[in-house]
Write a structure and sequence with these properties.
- The protein folds into 2 domains: 212 residues, 3-Layer(aba) Sandwich (Rossmann fold); 91 residues, UDP-galactose 4-epimerase, domain 1, CATH 3.90.25.10.
- It is built from 11 helices and 13 strands.
- The strands form 4 sheets. It has a 7-stranded parallel β-sheet with strand order 3-2-1-4-5-6-11, sandwiched between helices. Strands 7-10 form a two-stranded parallel ribbon.
- It is of the alpha/beta class.
Length: 346
C-alpha cells in the first residue's frame, strides 16, 4: 500500500477541481494542481489558499502535452494518485467546435495515462459525466443503463474516454480507475472564496441565474419549454459542488486501500431531478430576488431529462449528498455577491 498522500489534480483551479483540492487537503492529502488556465482563473488559487491558510503547489501545464506532464511527474516524487478534471465541458460549444473537444478531452487522457504508466502511478479518479447515457429510455439512470449515442461531441468525448479506460483495464495495466459520472454540479464553498467562475458568457444554468440576479446579464433564457416533462423544461440532477468534491476523496481512499477493481464506475448525483423552472423558483426563494427570464428555443445537444440512481455509490462507497437544492443555490448567490464586492473594491 502506498503511504504517500500526494495527489495530482489536473484542472485543479477549475470549478470542481478547486473544491476537490480543498476537500483533499482537509482530509489529510497533499494536492498538487496542474492547470493551463484556459478555462479557469488564478484567483481560484488565492481563494483556495485563503480557505486552507496555505498555498497549494500549482504547475501551469497543458495536459495534452505529454512531455510537460513528464516534467511534473519527475519533479513531484511519490505521487499516490491522480484526479483528472482537466477537460472542456460546454455542450453547446462542443457542437460548434468538436475538434477542440476531441483534442483536449481525449488527448489529455491518453497523454496522462501514458505518463502514469511510465512513472508507475497506479491510481486514477476520472471525471466522467451523465452525458454518456445519451437520451436514456428509463429514469433514473443506473450504472448499468445502456450507454447510447451521445447527444453532443462533449458527451462523446466522455464515452470515448471511458472506452479507453475500459480497454486499458483489459490490457493488464497496473492502473486502477474509478470513473465518477457527474450529474450537474452547482453552488460554491461556504466561505464564498471559491465557486463557479465562467470566462465570458456562462454555459451553465446557475451562474447565468446568479449573473442575471446581480444585473450583469439582462435576462435569463430558458432553452425550451416544450419538452416531455411536467413543466416543459429540462430536468437535471443538481449536486452541490462540495458534495461532489467529497466523492473524490472517498474514491481516492478506495483506490489507495487496494480494494478497487481495475475499472469501477459510479453515478454521483442526488438521485432527484429538478426542472429549470423549479431551479429558478428555488433560487428566488433562497436569494429573495425575482429573476427576469424568458422562454427561448431549445438548445442543440440538450437531453430532455436525466437524473441519477445513486444506490451503487451509497452502498459501495458509502457516499451520500448532504446539501439541498435551495442551500446549494443560496451558496451560489453568496459567491456571486462576494464577487461583486471584490469587483467594487478593486
Amino acid at each position: 500500500m502506498n503511504n504517500s498522500k500526494k495527489i495530482l489534480v489536473t484542472g485543479g483551479a477549475g470549478f470542481i477541481g478547486s473544491h476537490a483540492v480543498v476537500e483533499l487537503t482537509e482530509a489529510g492529502f497533499e494536492p498538487v494542481i496542474v492547470d493551463n488556465f484556459s478555462n479557469s482563473q488564478e484567483s481560484a488559487l488565492r481563494g483556495i489558499a485563503e480557505i486552507l491558510g496555505q498555498e497549494v503547489k500549482c504547475y501551469r501545464t497543458d495536459c495534452t502535452d505529454a512531455q510537460a506532464l513528464r516534467e511534473v511527474f519527475a519533479s513531484e516524487k511519490d505521487i499516490a494518485g491522480v484526479i483528472h478534471f482537466a477537460a472542456y465541458k460546454a455542450v453547446g460549444e462542443s457542437v460548434k467546435e468538436p475538434l477542440k473537444y476531441y483534442h483536449n478531452n481525449v488527448g489529455s487522457l491518453v497523454a496522462l495515462l501514458q505518463v502514469m504508466e511510465e512513472f508507475r502511478v497506479k491510481n486514477l479518479v476520472f471525471s466522467s459525466s451523465c452525458t454518456v447515457y445519451g437520451i436514456p429510455d428509463e429514469l433514473p439512470v443506473t450504472e448499468a443503463t445502456p450507454v447510447k449515442k451521445a447527444n453532443s461531441p462533449y458527451g462523446n468525448t466522455k464515452q470515448i474516454c471511458e472506452d479507453i479506460l475500459s480497454d486499458l483495464a483489459d490490457s493488464g495495466t497496473e492502473i486502477k480507475t474509478i470513473a465518477l459520472r457527474y450529474f450537474n454540479p452547482i453552488g460554491a464553498h461556504a466561505s464564498a472564496k471559491i465557486g463557479e467562475l465562467p470566462l465570458g458568457v456562462p454555459n451553465n444554468l446557475v451562474p447565468f441565474i446568479t449573473q442575471t440576479a446581480a444585473g450583469i446579464r439582462e435576462k435569463l433564457t430558458v432553452f425550451g419549454n416544450d419538452y416531455d416533462t411536467p413543466d416543459g423544461t429540462n430536468i437535471r440532477d443538481y449536486i452541490h459542488v462540495v458534495d461532489l468534491a467529497k466523492a473524490h476523496v472517498v474514491a481516492i481512499n478506495k483506490l489507495l486501500s487496494g480494494n478497487a477493481e481495475k475499472l469501477e464506475v459510479y453515478n454521483v448525483g442526488t438521485g432527484e431531478g429538478n426542472s429549470v423552472l423549479e431551479v429558478i423558483q428555488a433560487f428566488e426563494k433562497a436569494s429573495g430576488r425575482k429573476l427576469n427570464y424568458v422562454i427561448g428555443p431549445r438548445r442543440e445537444g440538450d437531453v430532455p431529462k436525466i437524473y441519477a440512481d445513486v444506490t451503487k455509490a451509497t452502498s459501495e462507497l458509502g457516499f451520500k449528498t448532504e446539501t439541498s437544492l435551495e442551500d446549494s443555490l443560496r451558496s451560489a448567490w453568496n459567491w456571486q455577491v462576494a464577487l461583486e464586492k471584490e469587483t467594487v473594491s478593486k
